[in-house]
Design a protein that fits this description.
Helix content: 55-70%
Radius of gyration: 19 Å
Structural class: mainly alpha
Order of helices and strands: HHHHHHHHHHHEEHHHHH
Shape: globular
CATH topology: Glycosyltransferase
Largest sheet: 2 strands, antiparallel
Oligomer: single chain
Number of strands: 2
Strand order of the largest sheet: 1-2
Number of domains: 1
Strand content: under 5%
CATH class: Mainly Alpha
Distance between the termini: 5 Å
């Protein structure tokens, strides 16, 4: 775990919880010294081949000219900042950085597109006049820029990232959460977690994120958990889902809460529901679930990764893509991020 994240945890949760930021396998398995499987054991030859095909497909789908140069997406999602961000994260999960590595040019193009889409207020969205997009896209875009900046220290990326963080902070409501638009309004857990991850990543990259904002958003997440360990959509009620619970668990880990009933109940809920994840949010849910199990470590990770790995390998299309209602670029980026989690390349995912 990097020093930036330790600082984030100390500020957000206090010294008592920060001191619990130990290797996560300890939290997941108590006193039992579970031998966690290595990346070499988990990422089979077939896994590497699938990732390679997926990244190659994604690179081939990146737009090479025009106003959307560097973006991805077809149809109604053409030029989506969220999909562009996920594509950039997928390439960086391989080990490439802006301008460096096998997919370095692709990362650079994605970061440049997101920088161009950052408006005067810091809101990252395609077509500022119509504000096409929402805080999901802004959150993923801010996350991608934070990783690109942390790896390159490029001034332009840093300037745009700082503006994006200011926009995010200004839109946080009094409960500590966020909604679809970059204004103070109501909040839901799904959008809120996107902003939490983005702010944590930005903080790790050296961008100032006030203690009060961090504390408020973590309290929002904690209040969203129900008695059975699942997480609900809003504090006022609403449904609980696999995807929301996975996102909630990741937020708890981000807060330095590595053990105790909140974590145990949340992980147990995910384990019970792993074969019935909501189809419409399949990739979104498993994007967070694999992070949760990665941080839990031990047997949680040993059992979870091979299961989702095999499902993704069996559902990959012949051209290297994966399919989803949000488009093949979205699904392929998400699948490649999930499959590459054992690489431990992205700072935001680091234990």
């Amino acid at each position: 775990m990097g020093s930036g994240r330790r600082a984030f945890l100390r500020s957000a949760t206090g010294a008592g919880i920060a001191s619990a930021a130990l290797p996560s396998a300890v939290a997941a398995d108590g006193d039992n010294k579970v031998k966690e499987k290595t990346a070499d054991e988990l990422m089979t030859a077939s896994t590497h081949a699938a990732i390679e095909k997926g990244l190659r497909h994604l690179a081939g789908r990146q737009i090479s000219r025009g106003s959307n140069r560097g973006a991805f997406g077809t149809g109604g999602y053409a030029g989506s900042v969220g999909i562009c961000a996920l594509g950039g994260l997928a390439f960086m999960s391989e080990g490439s950085t802006p301008g460096v590595g096998r997919f370095g040019k692709n990362v650079e193009l994605a970061a440049d597109f997101l920088a161009r889409m950052t408006g005067p207020t810091g809101y990252i969205a395609r077509n500022m006049a119509a504000a096409v997009g929402n805080m999901y896209g802004h959150g993923f875009a801010t996350l991608c820029l934070s990783q690109a900046y942390g790896m390159s220290r490029k001034k332009l990326i840093g300037d745009k990232l700082r503006a994006a963080v200011r926009c995010t902070l200004a839109a946080q409501n009094d409960q500590g959460g966020w909604r679809y638009q970059p204004v103070k309004s109501d909040a839901d857990l799904s959008v809120t977690v996107c902003q939490i991850m983005a702010l944590r990543a930005a903080r790790d990259a050296g961008i100032n994120v006030p203690d009060a904002a961090r504390e408020k958003c973590i309290e929002y997440v904690k209040k969203s958990q129900t008695a059975d360990g699942s997480f609900r959509y809003t504090l006022g009620g609403g449904h609980t889902t696999f995807a929301l619970t996975a996102a909630g668990c990741v937020s708890l880990f981000s807060a330095g809460i590595y053990d105790g009933p909140q974590i145990e109940k949340g992980l147990a809920y995910l384990k019970r529901r792993k074969d019935s994840a909501e189809r419409h949010y399949y990739f979104y849910g498993h994007y967070y679930a694999v992070q949760a199990m990665w941080h839990a470590g031990g047997n949680w990770w040993n059992d979870w990764y091979p299961s989702i790995r095999d499902k993704l390998l069996s559902s990959q299309n012949g051209d290297g893509s994966w399919s989803d209602s949000y488009g093949s670029e979205y699904a392929t980026a998400m699948a490649c991020i999930i499959l590459q989690m054992p690489n431990d390349m992205l700072p935001v995912f680091a234990r």
